[in-house]
Specification:
The protein is mainly β. The protein has no helices and eleven strands. 0% of the residues lie in helices and 57% in strands. The protein is globular.
Length: 114
Amino acid sequence: QVQVVESGGGLVQAGGSLRLSCAASGSVFSAMGWYRQAPGKQRELVAQITSSGSTNYADSVKGRFTVSRDNAKNTLYVQMGSLKPEDTAVYYCTAVDLRGFSYWGQGTQVTVSS
């Protein structure tokens, strides 16, 4: 059974940093990524990384967020810096298996106060 579990969310002041983790288990995953959804907005891609280490970032987080993964542990991370109030959202981890099926975690809340 596949499980995807995020951790590390919380409340941080603007300009601060936070690191999110995501542990995936139960399959072999190619791409893994972070999405976020703010109240009243659609879910959007934050960053993603393939098993070979290729990364892709949303323009809004480039230069501030860094995504990484430990393939041996099937664990995904995102180091978020210079946080802004507009980064406030529920952050979701996704893991894509070799068939292309995406699994999602339940999300972790990140709140950035001004």
